[in-house]
Amino acid sequence: MRFFIDTANLDNIKEAQSLGILNGVTTNPSLMAKEGIKGKDNILEHYKTICEIVDGDVSAEVISNDFEGMIREGQELALLNPQIVVKIPMIEEGIKAIRYFSDKGIKTNCTLVFSLGQALIAAQAGATYVSPFIGRLDDNGQDGIQIVKSIVDMFDKQNYQTKVLAASIRNKNHIEECAKIGAHVVTAPLSAIKELIPHTLTDIGLKKFLDDYAKNQ
Ligand code: G3P
Predict the structure, then answer these.
(1) Candidates 14, 34, 38, 87; catalytic one
(2) For residue 162, what pLDDT band results from cuts at 50, 70 and 90?
(3) What's the CA gap between 78 and 49, in Å, rounded?
(4) How many whole angstroms separate alpha carbon 117 and alpha carbon 110?
(5) What are the respective helix, strand and coil percentages of the chain, to the nearest 5?
(6) Count of helices and strands (H, E) across the chain
(7) HSE-up (13 A, CA, CB side) for residue 53
(8) Ligand 1 center to residue 70 CA distance, Å?
């Protein structure tokens, strides 16, 4: 499973990169707003900076709802850096845009996916990634992990090359479950990624190792 970080915060991206576990970044307009990045030029510059920090794919989301707008924006984003993946919402115009970019060899991430059928149609349009939102499905009283599992299994059975990029990750349990069910990529905030590292027994064990070493000197 590849690890992406779901943020536009440069310090968080640098910290995840320094751990040596980072394979890419996903952003969205809400995450850009959270960092106070506004205005087209600043937003494009921010994407370029992110691409300089990480080696892997960087999802940059279009804000148009119509096909022509998505194509115009997506082309501009894709020209910024070969790492850019054009992130497109799961709506009819978005499906047409995914097909357009797929035919041109430009990578896409179909976002706001909440069902097996939506994932199926995005894969059929040639999406590089589909992003089912686990946390928001859970919030909606559904089982986000089970929906992601059904997408992973269906892509496998049908031989789609589209990768399942599990998003809206809220905690380490979501990441562990994504790995168990075979999600190809997980995108999570730094806090959830770092929850994977500590364990009380690790702390206790390490203290004893160091105490025993000190006593023996
Ligand atoms: O990048 C989209 C997704 O990860 C959003 O997560 O926590 O806002 O539901 P969240």
Answers:
(1) 87
(2) very high
(3) 14
(4) 13
(5) 55, 20, 30
(6) 11, 8
(7) 24
(8) 21
Ligand 1 mean position, distance from CA 4 (Å): 12
Q: Give the CA angle between residues 129, 134, 137 to the nearest 5°.
A: 120
Indicate if 87 belongs to the active site: yes
Give dist(CA 101, CA 76) in Å, integer: 12
Question: Which residues, in sequence order, are bridge partners of residue 129?
Answer: 109, 163
How far apart are the CA of 139 and the centre of ligand 1, in A?
Answer: 12
**Mean predicted lDDT score pLDDT of the chain:** 98
pLDDT in tens, 113-157: 999 999 999 999 999 999 999 999 999 999 999 999 999 999 999
Contact 101, 136 (CB under 8 A): no
Pocket, ligand 1, Cβ cutoff 6 A: 6, 26, 28, 133, 135-136, 167-168, 187
Cβ(61)–Cβ(90) under 8 Å? no
8 Å CB contact between 123 and 162? yes
- Per DSSP, 182 falls in state T
